[in-house]
Amino acid sequence: MRSDVAVPARTTSAQGTGWALRSAAAADLEALVELRATVMRADLERLGRYDEHRVRQRLRDSFSEQYTSIIMVDREIAGCVTVRPAEGRQWLEHFYLAPHHQGRGLGSAVLRTVLGRTDAQGMTVGLNVLQGSAARRLYERHGFVVEAQDPVDVFMVRPPG
User: For the segment 129-140, what is each residue's pLDDT rounded down to a tens digit?
Assistant: First the structure.
């Protein structure tokens, strides 16, 4: 990540898949918008909150090249992650993996890399995840605990490790 989370040029996931993070560019936006819509659809539908336009527009409205990294696997966009400073902590946002890259250790590998950098900076990391989302288990495995919740969102926090 350009200013907040420096990452190695190339790394290996738990299953040996080579992956890399690169800085986001404006040209990545629409691919990420579609990735978000795909990844979020089932959880948003389950919660009765899926809106085809809104799911895309929320990423368009908050996209930041400065704080977003693209997860690359074999020259393909496999996902993205944003780490943005706000409210005295780093906020982990827009962490999406294409469905065919989920469940293979890539998310954990990326998260370990991001958290290694925030730990080195002594920064607390916050995030929110949808109620009932499988992603919550990933975050809990990496030390996040529930800070607050409402009927739609679970807000989690992880102090520096």
Answer: 999 999 999 999
CA distance 42 to 48: 10
Report the C-alpha gap between 113 and 5 in whole angstroms.
Answer: 9
Alpha-carbon distance of 52 to 50, in angstroms, equals 6
Residue 80: which pLDDT band, with cuts at 50, 70 and 90? very high
Which pLDDT value is given to residue 14? 43
pTM above 0.90, yes or no: no
State the CB neighbour count (10 A cutoff) for residue 130.
Answer: 18
H runs (alpha helix) in 4-160: 29-46, 52-62, 106-120, 135-141
Half-sphere exposure (CA, 13 Å, Cβ side) for 28? Answer: 23
- Taking the C-alpha atoms of residue 121 and residue 128, their distance in angstroms, rounded to an integer, is 21
CA 131 → CA 17, 57, 61, 115, distances in Å? 30, 21, 23, 23
